[in-house]
Amino acid sequence: MNKLLVSGVAAAILCLLVSGAPAAESPHGLAPAGDMPFIPELGGLRHKAFKNQYGQRRDLSEAVLVRKSSVKAGKATVPAGGLCYISETEQDAAPFRRDPFLLLGEHAYLVDSKVSVRTVRDVSLKKGEKVTVDDSGYRLWFDYATDHYDLPYIQMALIAPSGHWPMEFSVSSKFPAIKDLPDRSHMEGDVEQLDEFFLDPVFEYGASRFEVKDHDFTKAHFAALSYPVIEEATFSLARPVVLDLRQEEYRLYGTKRIYAFRENEGFRVRVTDFSGNTVLAEKLVRPITSQGSKDAEDEKDAYSLTVPGEDMRIEIAVQPEYLRHSDFVPWSTAVPHDWEDGVLSLVIYRDLVTVKNGEPWPLDARYTVGLEANLLTGKLQRLTLENAAPFTLDAENDSFDGPVKYSDVWNRPAFRLVADDIKGDRALSYYVRDAFFQRTDNLAFTDKGRKDIDCFIGRTPTFISILEDSFLTRLATPKFGTEVQGSHFTSFPSVMPNMAFHAPDPTAPFGGLMRGFGREQVTNRRGEKLTSSEGLVIRGSYVDWKNDRIVIPPAGLFYTSRNARNVRALNGETFYMLGRRAYIATFKSTTFTRRNFDIDFWRVQPDASLHPVYWQDQPLGVNNKVLRFTEKHLLDDRPMAQINVVKYSGNNFGAPFELAQGLSREQGDRYYLHDRFAEGATWIEPEFVGEDYVRVKSFGTPAIQSVEYTYDKPVRVLLAPGEEKALGKNHTLKLIAFDENAGTSEVEIRRNDGSLVEHKVLGPLTAETRAFLPQHQRVVNSLQFPFDEGRNRVLAEVDVKTPFEKGKAAFYTYVNLKKLESDTPFEGDPRFMVRPDVCGHCYQLNEVLLDNPEPIILDKDHPRFDGPRMADGKPQFSIVIDSFDGEMIHAWHIETNYRKRVFKSANLAFQPRNNIDVLMGVNGTIEGFLRASLMERSALQEYWRTGTHPHPERGLDARLSRKFQ
Amino acid sequence: MNTSYEERRRSFLSCLYSTQEALPGLLAMFFIALFSNNLAGSPNPLTLENLFAWLDGVVGPVNHQPLFQILNSNFVWNPFLMGLIIGNVFGVPDCWKRGLSYIHILMPLGIIMLAPHFVFSHAEKAGLPLILLAFAVMIITATLTLVLGRLLSMDDRHYSTIAGALSTGDPHVVAILMPMLKSRGGQVINALGCILLFGLVASFLLPLLGHALNMDDEAFAVLSVFGIGNTGQMFNAAFGYSYEAGHWAHYVEAVRNALMPAGFLFVFLVMFIRARIRPHDEHVHATLAHKRFPLFVAVFIIVWIAVQFHVVKEPAHLAVFELVKWDFSLAAAALGLSLPLREIAQWGLKGVVLTFASGIFRIALLTLCLLAAAHFKFPLI
After folding, report:
1. Is residue A439 a contact partner of residue A429, using CB atoms and an 8 Å limit?
2. Cβ of B376: how many Cβ atoms within 10 Å?
3. CB of A944 within 8 Å of any CB in chain B?
């Protein structure tokens, strides 16, 4: 027996040795170490906006990423694909638009691409996993699952090999789909909570389509994932030569003649040698115009002539007179209209380079090309070059060259990764040097070194995606103290009349966790763990230097309390209320509906205050939410609108509405989007989606009126018929009778002095009614019995988990109920108004906001402002101005009262500020603001680390910051 | 035809050289300025400033700071260096000299325009104890340097220039003091070299001292800022010690900046009063050329007092500072062009001895104060 065991173990060891260790996971789609160094700027990696032929802005950027590296025994190892160069456009690049694109620091134009749609079937995964779905390294990520009516819906993302993903999408196979949305165009104003909860099993996103077949809270099975892939792309590395076209005549291009013979469908272009005797190529070429469908795979060939072996690609374009012989477009426009008049020109692209997805880079076989498409438009968004084989850096071989770049001077490595001091399991010195021989700081940052050589150098937006798992930790626990970015001082006060629906200054310091602002994990009656946290946001504050004062405008200061998801009644769920744990008792919500209204496209209006003006917003009730039309695209010339619900806090509702009309996959369209949107209890049905405005036929979203809560923990009581128990000091709860089969209990609550008695039959709690729990307030109300008014308000509710036990009925009792009623003064401190926010899916409480209805003025005589008072009468926090000279704030801080001690924040004007905008504490609202300015905040962290001042144009990309607000 | 000034005089501007006479020199200054610094309104990318920035990138940071800033590359140093090289390698034609003499207008003008840079309220945040300590150390350093300079039998213009620059911790002060003290160009640059050399050495040695004494980050930041002063060099010391010390150095620097005028005005007033008391002393040269209290100094003091009442807002200050850069770029170009290297060398190494002696004394004094503050748990910031 022993021999058998020994031989079995030996065989197992042998198998392991032969097979090697489990294969290392491909780094594709995965993030680098959460604490990796980020350097926003290195001269050789560009970050700049250019314009295409039609004046459309293209924000281009490059980066170098190292991920999944490790350091051991004096060696740093980078797996295949671990070193990645990324060139990215924020928009996309397509043929026939002369879209600029960066190739290892060189300005190029995309002139051609080959696009296909990849469909992957039957993908299964578990919650939290990022599974590879194809050979090129795309991954599907199961991020999150929550429920409605106890049925699950899931949030997913398709991650490109580079690590980029544009958005998370929600899908579910358990609910009515968008197509089932009934006509609700008759609804207007507040209506009661609606029963239906919508979530589509298919997420349609332009050129992409993701269909879930089945799922629960922990695993999901997708029937099909379809997404665009770029198989091949051709770039021109030089500005095109533009020649006026003369029909039936030739133009000389170097030693070639280019003839153009007029035909009904276009021009027959013939390229000959200098004498005209030898025809090198000939083809009917149609003039290009701006319609998006021209670059469809089955159409695009008609619009260009590529001369084999001659490095020439000829197109015919309409050029306005003043653009002749130039590709300089002096203005920006969002809409690619054709020139209304101009001359037909031959546009000749040269210095052509064709790269293929998954193939070696033409100049350097050590690197593999990756071409990634914009999931919405299916056009090129990203080019990556990854090391094809793993490599090791050590004392003898301390550097690894990046891919060789095309250059007008000499083709050379675009960058070099150097690790010149590795001791044991730590890299003490490593850096990246660019093609201009400039290097970064030592990326180890401290003498302790690092256990890997991961890093991100440059400013491609992919940075934001790959930090999704770690950004909050990076920002909330900074290694180098609380970063404060000096303000840009203006020659006029940046007055804000009211800050509702606005985000704070994107440069506002983030204080992170601070004692006094609670954050803890709480467990509800069902055993679900939820993070509950509170914080403080100041937004829109400004120095009114004409009057030597600091002003926080109305709604400029708000206290926020929020859980990881909505706060539900009947579950004993808690939330923070000014530093104390509060138990939600009940809530009152409605559905706010509107019909037949227009939403205009919002345009970024530059001003110096970093607070855009949103005059196009469409209000949804008073101090509830607004609708904002924030983004638009043309999908084969069909306008697509992205509309956001913006909450009172300035954060967006998680799911933007992406709408386009008249698209149909059945009719062969390349794109598809729903022509209406419904998710949870929110829906929008447009009548018309235009480039500049959307006419809405019907819209609805939940709104919350009030919430009742108590600081006293609810008590579970078991009552037999006729039995009674004290309900606080002043009331008594008595069970009259119950019917277990019907799920009902008849109860009575009375004042102990006998002045008031009420009966109520709670229930029925049956399978039918349970199907609407825990969210539907009609059912919730049927299971709750609130009693009395004012300070003595109490409530009894059925224990929905175990309503009957041992011949008794079970209840939870709440005493000393308090009420938060929307748009009314907070009863604990009437200086603040209550603005509860609702979950847009499910009518539950999402967030408690307390804000200032009146401006708050701080000056030399009033340098302190106390925040809302807690139950003990002390302010939860105070704003203290320490040094203010009438124009610049040199020192201020926040104080909190926590367990009879006063805690002070760091100086939040470590560098002079012209406002006291701040984010303190960590919850979903603050997280939203941080995510929106993640790139700039991370860049600031780096400037802060070395004490350098950011370049005024680069330090804060104001346009970028605004865009995400 | 020779005509007297009185005959030519049409207005007070008649005292100036004619455009024809001054233009070559002015153009030389202009082009040197243009190719030295990235100046407001000039899109020229081919500047010495950008060359140094590129070299900074190639060499890589030293203690996370750009090397050429540690070596004091700035808007005064760059054009001066370029002018010095051109002047000493190619010589300066006579026709440039009248234009170059406009340095005597540009310097006082630049000093006046610098006034909005020194706002006391920017230093308030650091608290009165630190401000008083910094002020005391500055005055003691200036006084000691003046006394030591005299003991070393140095030219009073030379040692007073060193005293002003060392006590305020800013090498630019040599340029500010030049028209005040009526120092010679060679003395000014010799003094500048002394201050930079001391700062460079101290910036690398100070962290060793800090670690040896186990100083906390805030204390070390104070030691760097007031012990070295020169921005790039004191950041080199502070960040060489720790990131935290570097951040505090940024914070405390506002105090040094705000007190700077008090330092150089103190030196000027001491030397000015001394020259009035002993006008016939053959050893007294500094400020002697001033027949009366210089108008530009009076204007500077008035403007400096006025800006304390916040009459110049930050955007205006930044705009004025861009003009200061233009002004000092032109003046430093003129200074470099008109300064043979031998004139710098002729003032010898006594300046180095004086600077190091006073500088080491200041560091020792500061260290003692900071250790005492730590011992008695006295919060300095």
Report:
1. no
2. 7
3. yes
Of A437, A887, A910, the CB nearest to B251: A910
| Complex ipTM tops 0.85 | yes
Are residues B64 and A945, on separate chains, in Cβ contact within 8 Å? Answer: yes
Q: Exposed/middle/buried for B347, CB within 10 Å: 0-12, 13-18, 19+?
A: buried
Are B318 and A489 an interchain contact pair (Cβ–Cβ within 8 Å)?
Answer: yes
* CB spacing of A43 vs B249 below 8 angstroms: no
Residue owning tokens 């060489």: B240
- The CA distance from B15 to the nearest CA of chain A, in Å, is 38
First to last CA, chain B: 69
- Find chain A residues with C-beta within 8 A of B313's C-beta: 489, 491, 545, 887
* 8 A C-beta contact, residue A676 and residue A181: yes
CB contact under 8 A, A946 and B64: yes
A830 inside 8 A of chain B by CB: no
A–B interface: beta-carbon pairs under 8 A: 82
DSSP H helices in B242-313: 243-277, 295-308
Could you give the CA distance from residue A421 to residue A786 in angstroms, rounded to a whole number? 70
- CA–CA separation, A196 vs A219, rounded Å? 24
User: Distance between CA atoms of A540 and A917, rounded to whole angstroms?
Assistant: 7
Q: How far is CA A222 from the centre of its chain?
A: 23
Nearest CA in chain B to A441: B61
Chunk chain A into consecutive blocks of 10 residues (it has 965) and report each block's average pLDDT, rounded to whole numbers.
Answer: 46 41 72 94 90 88 97 96 97 94 96 97 96 95 93 96 95 94 93 93 96 96 97 95 90 95 95 95 94 91 93 90 66 71 88 97 97 97 97 96 95 97 97 96 95 96 93 83 86 87 92 92 91 96 93 97 93 93 95 95 70 87 90 92 94 90 89 94 95 94 94 95 92 94 94 90 93 91 90 92 93 95 95 94 94 96 96 93 94 94 94 94 93 88 85 42 38
Gap between the Cα atoms of B192 and A809, Å rounded: 91
Nearest-Cα distance to chain A for B64, in Å, is 6
Cα A91–chain centre separation: 16
CB A661 within 8 A of CB A686: yes
How far apart CA A348 and CA A69 sit, in angstroms, is: 44
Q: Does A946 touch chain B (CB under 8 A)?
A: yes
